[in-house]
Amino acid sequence: xxxxxxxxxxxxxxxxxxxxxxxxxxxxxxxxxxxxxxxxxxxxxxxxxxxxxxxxxxxxxxxxxxxxxxxxxxxxxxxxxxxxxxxxxxxxxxxxxxxxxxxxxxxxxxxxxxxxxxxxxxxxxxxxxxxxxxxxxxxxxxxxxxxxxxxxxxxxxxxxxxxxxxxxxx
Length: 170
Known about the structure:
The chain is mainly β. The protein has one helix at residues 2-13, and strands spanning 40-45, 64-68, 70-71, 90-98, 102-108, 113-118, 121-122, 127-129, 139-145, 148-157, 161-169.
């Protein structure tokens, strides 16, 4: 019992250091190809499709866009996602027309699984990670792409809406 009292007395006597989180800059530093992330496409909402029959939409070079998503039970992915869909999460598909070869960068403001599909096959990502500190970009995936039609499949988003941006870097 005496040991506990001494240990508690020592712990109470030690100084407590409180670390503050680093402050975010007024304008987070974004790579040039993602400069549009700082601009919200006000009034612009792109609806993710619940199946793979959606019309064409090319978000390349656009500002950050809101994507309303669908519940698991209403989704019919054209290609089985690389991650098993969670019945309590959301997803959707967005067709992307790529006009020239380059590096496609997809940025999301929340964690979700992303597959890029072309001709019935999932493209292999070449890089993935988080966005720059304080940018609001939670996830970034990069793909080397050739001209053609692709479909971006979003799986297991935590909410019924997600902000996204896709840009092509030469």
